[in-house]
Design a protein that fits this description.
It is built from 21 helices and 7 strands. By secondary structure, it is mainly alpha-helical. Strands 3-2-5-7-6 form a 5-stranded mixed beta sheet, covered by helices on one side. It has a two-stranded antiparallel sheet with strand order 1-4. The chain is globular and about 85 Å long.
Length: 536
């Protein structure tokens, strides 16, 4: 009597195990493909080697690597970030990447990219599963894979950093994941799932307030459309829950995260700064479209953004004109939400005077993902293999195989400036000062290793995206003066005026000078100056 019962009990368990194995396998495949793409570009042509020219050479990218290093080595954590404070999901993901990389910054970027794309894939899988509950798991996995195609192919092209923002640790990844995953909160039926998703949304919104600029306007319009169609009562609960989530996120931000922000998000709302950022848009995009491949990608992205808006308008009209006896379909509302995100979000940044080219991913890259999410069921069996073929051909055309084979040098890559400092700094000299844009790009790959505390051009402490403890408790022995950096060089006249002439110096290239101090009285003066200076 018991055997058939046991068999029936085991069957659902076996099915769940197979389903979980399929999800895990697909996610692992996405992660491995992403890692190979990063290595392919790292070992490929210099013009598209963004892991070297951007990940390693942009001090913004190394922030969380340095944060996790401080955390795991027991250093006091008195960090100041930007309005984006990275607490969730970026910090947990960076901890995992750091551990997997064994503390290697080069490998860390590879693992971050793999983890990011794996998380996006899981977010897309959950969404399509909730949107299409009657379909088979294989179709859900195929749908999520199809939507992931731009997030794999574009970094493989590697002709613009914008195409790889979603693979970086600090370029608004939490915002991208929140925009994609947020509709799932309103679709899940399990209380536990809704609580978990709600907590994730609260933490992500509190960490990445810019996400709300892209999420909230479409959400408000979706609720408005549903209210017109079915009355206010039909959206009252969703509106109340959304309000609770927003208020909770605000409370978490103010109570727990405010100490971490380098400046308030409200400080970005400034007309003069807004006009200056608008002025930066034209030369920035002019530089990108000078490359033919990037021009094609951005054109396709812009067309997809417009298509999303058209889809949203048509979808809203059809939704409002539907037979009154028809059952409300949240699937149509999710389509409306994604259709509005790119251009409604962009309009919201303009209304708040915060438009910036760094926010363009959701306007030009995200729409490609949103369009592919809408692939009809009958097309999925054809689109999936075609997409896989396009990815394979792109890899072959861009030299992915030879790139991966030649990526070994990336894992030990150091810039010429870092090599110069490693080789020429006197024995025992391991702590110095530089600008923000030079600090991490030079020090994180050092083999000595040396560290750099960031300061401003007029030699004041700079607490933007750094651990305040460095300047407040330690004293450096050298200054790196770079006349060709991404910001104004540190003034040699100010340094010598404050601390006297250096005891020695050397150059690392034209306009790149290292001032070294060794006399005890000068070192004491340097330490006292920075330990007691409140900084900016």
């Amino acid at each position: 009597m018991t055997e058939p019962v046991l068999e029936r009990a085991a069957a659902p368990s076996g099915a769940r195990l197979r389903a979980a194995s399929a999800i895990l396998g697909a996610t692992a495949l996405i992660a491995v493909l992403t890692a190979l793409i990063v290595l392919a570009r790292a070992g490929g042509d210099t013009a598209t080697a963004w892991p070297v020219t951007w990940e390693l050479q942009n001090s913004d990218n190394g922030v969380l690597f340095q944060y996790v290093h401080d955390m795991l080595t027991g250093r006091t954590l008195d960090w100041s970030f930007s309005p984006q404070v990275y607490v969730f999901p970026e910090v947990p993901m960076s901890v995992l990447a750091y551990v997997l990389a064994g503390g290697s910054v080069q490998a860390y970027f590879v693992f971050v990219a793999a983890i990011n794309n794996a998380a996006l894939f899981l977010g897309l899988y959950l969404l399509v599963r909730l949107l299409h509950p009657s379909e088979r798991q294989a179709t859900w996995l195929a749908r999520a894979g199809i939507a992931m195609l731009p997030l794999l192919i574009l970094p493989l092209l590697g002709t613009s950093w914008l195409q790889s923002y979603h693979l970086a640790p600090t370029y608004y990844f939490g915002m991208y994941l929140l925009v994609i995953a947020a509709p799932s909160f309103y679709l899940v039926s399990s209380t536990r799932s809704r609580v978990l998703l709600g907590a994730a949304i609260v933490l992500t919104a509190a960490s990445n307030p810019l996400a709300l600029v892209f999420c909230v306007p479409p959400l408000i319009l979706v609720l408005l459309v549903r209210s017109v169609r079915h009355g206010f009562r039909s959206t009252r609960r969703a509106a109340a829950v959304s309000g609770i989530l927003l208020l909770t996120a605000l409370a978490v931000r103010v109570v727990f995260f405010s100490r971490l922000q380098g400046t308030s998000p409200l400080n970005y709302i400034d007309l003069d700064a807004f006009l200056g950022r608008l002025g930066d848009l034209e030369p920035h995009f002019a530089l990108m479209v000078a490359d033919t491949t990037t021009r094609i990608v951005l054109t396709v992205g812009a067309l997809c953004a417009v298509a999303c808006l058209v889809f949203a308008i048509v979808g809203a009209v059809r939704y409002l004109r539907a037979d009154r006896s028809a059952v409300p379909t949240d699937r149509a509302l999710v389509g409306l939400y994604f259709g509005l995100v790119p251009l409604a979000g962009l309009s919201a940044t303009a209304a708040l005077l915060i438009t910036h080219y760094l926010y363009a991913w959701l306007v030009l890259i995200g729409p490609m993902v949103f369009v592919l999410l809408a692939v009809p069921r009958r097309w999925v069996p054809r689109v999936a293999p075609i997409g896989a073929g396009v990815l394979l051909v792109t890899g072959m055309v861009t030299g992915a195989v030879s790139g991966v084979a030649g990526s070994g040098d990336y894992l030990t890559a150091r810039s010429a400036e870092t090599q110069c400092l490693d080789e020429n700094l006197p024995a025992g000299v391991e702590l110095g000062y530089s600008t923000f844009s030079d600090a991490r790009r030079l020090s994180l790959t050092s083999e000595r290793p040396f560290r750099l505390i960031q300061i401003t051009a007029d030699a004041q402490p700079s607490y933007w995206l750094t651990n305040r403890t460095y300047a407040k408790t330690e004293g450096g022995q050298f200054f790196y003066i770079n006349d060709h950096g991404d910001e104004a060089a540190i003034s040699t006249a100010v340094i010598t005026g404050l601390f006297g002439n250096p005891d020695s110096s050397f150059g690392c290239g034209p306009g790149q000078t290292v001032l070294v101090y060794s006399e005890p009285s000068k070192l004491a003066a340097i330490k006292t100056f920075y330990n007691e200076n409140p900084g900016t």
